[in-house]
C-alpha cells in the first residue's frame, strides 16, 4: 500500500494521515474516563480476574510483544468493553512495573474501540477487530512506527496526546471470596466457615440501581460420604447471558473436565489455541496451558469475575472477584462485603444473622444463616429463582433440606487418623475434610487451596 499512498498523497502521506486522525479525535468524546484503570503491578493484574485478561499475543507465554509493545514482558486487556465500547491495555516490564507512553511509545494505552467489538456490532466503532485497527492500531503505525524519528517525531507526540497511558493512582484491588474443599467458604471479609448443605444456594445476590448480579452454587453429596462439595455454578450479571459450568461425571472427564452452557447452549474450548468465547455481557477465558477445560474464568461487564477450577481431587474450586462498586451491596453465602466481618452473615431480607466468630457452631450457622439462602425452582422474594438449567434432571433431585452432614469433629474422630497433624498442621478445614473423607490426599488438597485463597488476597 505504501507506493499507492506515496503516489496519491506524496512523501508525507503518514504525516497527513496522522493529522487527519488527530483532527477527528478532537471532535469525539473523551472515552478514556470510562475505562478501568490499570493495576499498578504485574502481580495485581494477574489477580484481577474480573476486569483484566492476558493479551493474546503479548504475554509471558506467547511473547509476541515486539510490534506493538516492544520491551514489555506481559500485557493485559480489559475483558469487556466500557459503557461506550472502549478498552484498556496495560503492559508490564521485567520488574513487574507499568510501561507507560511517557517512557516509550510502546507502553500500554486505552483504545477508543474494544478489540472484540460491542453489541450490536454492526455500528461505527463497534465492529470486532476492524474498528480497533482503524481507530487505534493504524494511527499508531502512521503516527509513530512509520514516522521519521519514531517516538521523537511530532506526529508520535500527537498520537500520544489522545492515546497516553493512564497511571494506577485510582486503581483498587478487587474483593475476593472462595469456595473450596468439602465445602469451606471464605467470605469477601475473610470469614472462614464450613457449610455442608445439599441443594442449590445463593452465593452472591446484588440488586440495586447499578448492579444486578446473581451467582448460584449447587452442592451435591460425595459418593458414600457424609459431606457435600460444589459441583456446578450459574451466573448472570445484569442482562448478560446465563453462564453455567458443571463438573462432569468422572467417566466423562477423559477429555474435558467441565460442561459449559451459555443460555442453555453447550460450548467447548475445542482447539488448543482457543482462549476466549464472547457471549452477551460476558467473556469466558481459558488460561494459557489449559487444554481440558479444567479452569475457566467468566468476566462480566460490571467487572465481576468468576473463576472455576477443577482441583486434582475432583472438586470445584471457586473464586469470585468483585470491584469496589459492590461494597455494601452483596448478600449470600459469600457474605456481605462491608470490610466488617461482624455483619458478614446478613440474612436475605436484610436482617442481621448470627454473629460471625469462633463461638458460632456449624449447626447454628447451617440452620440460622446458610439454609436461608436455599433456592427453589420458583421465584422467591430476596433470592430470585434458580439460574440452573434443570435438564435432564429437575430441581428436586438436587434439593435435600433434611440432609445431615457431620457437624463437628470430635476427639474420637481424630484418634482414627493419627497422622492428621502431619497432614493438616493448623488448618481446621483440612482436619474436617480428613475426618469426613478419610482421604489424606483430599485433605492435603484442601490445605493447599486454602493457602492459595489467602495468597490471592495479598496485594
What does the model show?
This protein is of the alpha+beta class. The chain has two domains: 2-162, no CATH class; 175-456, no CATH class. 22% of the residues lie in helices and 22% in strands. The chain has eleven helices and 19 strands. The chain has helices at residues 2-9, 13-26, 42-47, 66-69, 130-145, 154-162, 362-368, 411-415, 420-424, 428-437, 440-456, and strands spanning 52-54, 74-78, 87-92, 98-99, 110-111, 175-180, 184-186, 192-194, 199-207, 212-221, 228-237, 243-247, 258-262, 265-267, 276-279, 282-285, 295-300, 305-310, 316-322. The protein has an eight-stranded antiparallel beta sheet, covered by helices on one side. Strands 9-10-11-12-13-14 form a six-stranded antiparallel beta sheet, with no helix packed on it. α2 crosses α5 (130-145), α2 packs parallel to α6 (154-162) and α10 (428-437) runs antiparallel to α11 (440-456). It is elongated and about 90 Å long. The mean pLDDT is 91.
- Helical coverage, percent range: 10-25%
Supply the number of structural domains.
Answer: 2
* Average pLDDT rating: 91
How far is the first residue's CA from the last residue's CA?
Answer: 48 Å
Count, helices: 11
Write down how many β-strands occur, each being a DSSP E stretch of 2 or more residues.
19
Biggest sheet record: 8 strands, antiparallel
Helix/strand/pairing class, anyone? alpha+beta
Shape: elongated
Order of helices and strands: HHHEHEEEEHHEEEEEEEEEEEEEEHHHHH
How much of the sequence is in beta strands? Answer: 15-25%
Order the strands across the largest sheet as they lie in space: 8-7-6-19-18-17-16-15
Q: Low-confidence parts, pLDDT < 50 over ≥5 residues? A: none
| Rg result | 25 Å
Amino acid at each position: 500500500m505504501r507506493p499507492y499512498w506515496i503516489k496519491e498523497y506524496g512523501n508525507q502521506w503518514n504525516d497527513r494521515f496522522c493529522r487527519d486522525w488527530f483532527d477527528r479525535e478532537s471532535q469525539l468524546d473523551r472515552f478514556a474516563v470510562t475505562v478501568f484503570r490499570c493495576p499498578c503491578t504485574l502481580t495485581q493484574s494477574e489477580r484481577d480476574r474480573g476486569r483484566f485478561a492476558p493479551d493474546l499475543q503479548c504475554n509471558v507465554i506467547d511473547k509476541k510483544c515486539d510490534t506493538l509493545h516492544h520491551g514489555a514482558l506481559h500485557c493485559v486487556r480489559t475483558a469487556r468493553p466500557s459503557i461506550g465500547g472502549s478498552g484498556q491495555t496495560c503492559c508490564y516490564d521485567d520488574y513487574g512495573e507499568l510501561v507507560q507512553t511517557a517512557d516509550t511509545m510502546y507502553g500500554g494505552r486505552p483504545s477508543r474501540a474494544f478489540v472484540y467489538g460491542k453489541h450490536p456490532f454492526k455500528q461505527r466503532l463497534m465492529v470486532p477487530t476492524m474498528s480497533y485497527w482503524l481507530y487505534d492500531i493504524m494511527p499508531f503505525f502512521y503516527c509513530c512506527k512509520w514516522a521519521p524519528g519514531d517516538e521523537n517525531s511530532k506526529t508520535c507526540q500527537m498520537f500520544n496526546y489522545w492515546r497516553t497511558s493512564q497511571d494506577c493512582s485510582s486503581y483498587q484491588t478487587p474483593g475476593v471470596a472462595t469456595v473450596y474443599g468439602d465445602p469451606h467458604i471464605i467470605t469477601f471479609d475473610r470469614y472462614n466457615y464450613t457449610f455442608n448443605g445439599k441443594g442449590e444456594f445463593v452465593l452472591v445476590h446484588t440488586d440495586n440501581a447499578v448492579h444486578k448480579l446473581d451467582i448460584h452454587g449447587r452442592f451435591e453429596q460425595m459418593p458414600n460420604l457424609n459431606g457435600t462439595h460444589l459441583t456446578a455454578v450459574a451466573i448472570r450479571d445484569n442482562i448478560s447471558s446465563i453462564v453455567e459450568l458443571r463438573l462432569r461425571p468422572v467417566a466423562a472427564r477423559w477429555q474435558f473436565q467441565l460442561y459449559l452452557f451459555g443460555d442453555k447452549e453447550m460450548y467447548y474450548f475445542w482447539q488448543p489455541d482457543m482462549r476466549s468465547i464472547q457471549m452477551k455481557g460476558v467473556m469466558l477465558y481459558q488460561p494459557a496451558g489449559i487444554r481440558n477445560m479444567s479452569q475457566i474464568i467468566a468476566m462480566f461487564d460490571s467487572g465481576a469475575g468468576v473463576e472455576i477450577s477443577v482441583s486434582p481431587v475432583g472438586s470445584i474450586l471457586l473464586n469470585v472477584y468483585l470491584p469496589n462498586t459492590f461494597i455494601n451491596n452483596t448478600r449470600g453465602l459469600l457474605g456481605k462485603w462491608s470490610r466488617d466481618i461482624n455483619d458478614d452473615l446478613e440474612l436475605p431480607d436484610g436482617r442481621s444473622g448470627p454473629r460471625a466468630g469462633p463461638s458460632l457452631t456449624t449447626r447454628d450457622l447451617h440452620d440460622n444463616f446458610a439454609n436461608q439462602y436455599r433456592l427453589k425452582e420458583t421465584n422467591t422474594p430476596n433470592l430470585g429463582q434458580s439460574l440452573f438449567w434443570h435438564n435432564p434432571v429437575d430441581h428436586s433431585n438436587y434439593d435435600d433440606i433434611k440432609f445431615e452432614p457431620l457437624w463437628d469433629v470430635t476427639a474420637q474422630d481424630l484418634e482414627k487418623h493419627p497422622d492428621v497433624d502431619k497432614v493438616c498442621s493448623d488448618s481446621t478445614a483440612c482436619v474436617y475434610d480428613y475426618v469426613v473423607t478419610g482421604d489424606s490426599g483430599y485433605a492435603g488438597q484442601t490445605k493447599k487451596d486454602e493457602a492459595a485463597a489467602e495468597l490471592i488476597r495479598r496485594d
